[in-house]
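Have a think about this chain, tokens included, and walk me through the fold.
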Amino acid sequence: MNHIVTVQDAVTAFADFIEPTAAELDAIEREMPLILAEVDLLDAQIIAMDRTPNEVDARRIRRARNRVLTARRDLANHPAALLPGGAA
């Protein structure tokens, strides 16, 4: 008979090192508008999948895509998004 053994000690041994750094949290905060826009786009697409898409659904998806593109543009043009040492 094989015994099932937990590996909690092995998994949680490095729990202190798993926490995100301040720089990673700042990057997530900068990307949050894009993340939320992508979630809105996904919601609009899921709603349209439930039924035959109508004009309102098409408009909702189009506006959500535009918000995603705007958020991507803003993130790409943000000065903090530029990494040091890159080609100028």
User: Anything to note?
Assistant: The chain is about 70% helix and 0% strand.
